[in-house]
Amino acid sequence: MSSKKIKIEKKFALKEKMSIVIIGSKKFKQSTVNAMISEAQEVFDKAMFVTIDKIQIITTEKGLTLKYKDQNLLTDYDVIYPRFSSNDFLLGEAILKAIETSKAYNPLNLKSFQITNHKYYTSQKLSKEGVPGILSTLLISPKYIDLVIKEIGYPIVMKLISGFAGKGVVLVKDKGQMNSLLDTVHLFEECICMQKFVKSKNPGTDVRCYVTGDEVTGIMRIAKKGDWRSNLSRGGSAKIIEMTQEIKKIALTSAKILNMDICAIDLMDNNGKYVVIEVNFMPGPFKKYIGNLMIKKWIKFLYKKGIENKKKIK
Amino acid sequence: MLFCQIKTNVINMKILVVGEKKKNVFAYVKALREKGAEAKYLRILKFVLVSKHNKSFIKTTIGLIDKYDAIFIQSRTSLGPFIEPMLEQIEEKKIYSNCKIGSYYNSLNEPLQNVTLTTNGISCPNSIITGNEKNIEKIIERLNFPILAKSIKGKEIQQSMIVNTPSELNVFIKSMKHEMDGYLFKEFIKGRIISCLVIGNKVFAIEQTKENNDSQKINLMKGKTYRVRDDEKEIVISAANAIGYDIAQVDIINKKVISVSPIIPLQEFNKICSENIEKYVADFLIEKVKLQGEKKSYKDDLKKIRKAFSKTLFGRLFSKKKKTVIE
Ligand SMILES: Nc1ncnc2c1ncn2[C@@H]1O[C@H](COP(=O)(O)OP(=O)(O)O)[C@@H](O)[C@H]1O
Ligand SMILES: [Mg+2]
Question: Tell me, which fold does domain A201-280 have in CATH?
Fold first, then answer.
């Protein structure tokens, strides 16, 4: 009898009271959020979801608070998980900077938000450390495009640096196409990222690697017929795949360089070798194809890290 | 001092001045040349960043920039998405620049700048940043009127207005034609704005002769030269550094920082303060290159020593041993 009692007490002592706040994008997906919240409530003692626009950042002489209703998110939670997209850029940056002052565990950070929202910057940061990537360039004025062409040659993939979901990604086959395009880009007054067009053995497919701490989960995405872009939001399908060691290593190294504990690295096949195209700060969980698999992994991981972090700061 | 070859000789220094219009920045080139440095001007538009496997470089119409010891940047903050990855390369190549990584992202985003200053313990006007305009009276309860209200859409400030009452604030909110991504409300402090030019540890200042009334637009030409007090000096220097600049214009009212900008209004400061600001900038850059040179040559020396050592018999034995250990 007494041994049973001890066991129960032990279990009780081990279980720390843990709380999480998930700060979501203004344009969040209801089904994703519902699944995340119900999963978080199962694992954590307290779980809250709030969208980024409902938060107030208050700065006074006394310092900084991140207020939601009567709570200060910086002090009231053990784990803060920001899920921001490029739509949330301005507020997202400010909130991420604010979270840096919190003792709570945050799997992400301001710098990685800035870099992953910038296609060229991502490429520069990763390639320089030896991660296989795509030859990329960044330029301000189309007037000096020759400097770029000399490096890349046609065909070229032109991207708006902060585009997403395949928007603002254009394939330019030759000089003639380029000239007619440049007039339009000039209007944007944004800098232009140009990349070498990667010839894939399986065009229209890519591999998404979800990185959760040291774990990698791989998904193969197949584009809608006729589209060379494999974004699922443009239609298409996806399935879980076994990854080679090579792919796993690329994904883990990329996440480590950017200091991200939760993210997704998109790779594509370049003549038999995998290269990184993009890193996602707020990856969707592909619920339609793999159910709640990723959501469960994320929440479990956040709980584990939250406990580790709490021990550290004690 | 056997291995030390410090670059104290100004004659060998190569400094690139980067701007958008030659006439705005050529004074720096001249001042640098007068002091003996090899200086050149180049438009920022003539830069291209290239990223390849294991290496990245900055290409320009005059070739690579690697040979320069310092790059002085005077470019509008809206070019931040270009400047930031460029700064990273500049820092990596151990070239000195007046702007640090992250500075342009700070300047591009006023809410971020506010948070950055506050977390660095620099006093700014009390402010609230929010993405939601519902119950706005309640939200801004803790601020004192008048309030400077700004609306944010995408990556930019859309509109700004000074409001004196809750109803004026409501008018401002209702005047938005589109849905906004966020708002910034800042207490509007009455007083005389002091615009400070920070160059390293030196500060020049212009005080507005009138109190700011309905707008924070500053006309430097209508100001007069001002002697900064030590506490003000400390505030503006740490504000510039917190955002990531060695050289910047920092505006304050009643010792509170209201703006930090990397662009120097050279003509205005020269005229009102009767100075040759470009000379101070040139001196500062040259000084920085000297310091950088000391660091660089120290590291190069270490490399040389290691290389020389590895060529000795003992060194070879040592490195062999090390290899087997790793294997
Ligand atoms: N350099 C390239 N060469 C060939 N295909 C590319 C290249 N860059 C992108 N793609 C294709 O276009 C899709 C969208 O590009 P990506 O950079 O991921 O932008 P987004 O953020 O809009 O998804 C990718 O998933 C890939 O299939
Ligand atoms: Mg993509």
Answer: D-amino Acid Aminotransferase; Chain A, domain 1 (3.30.470)
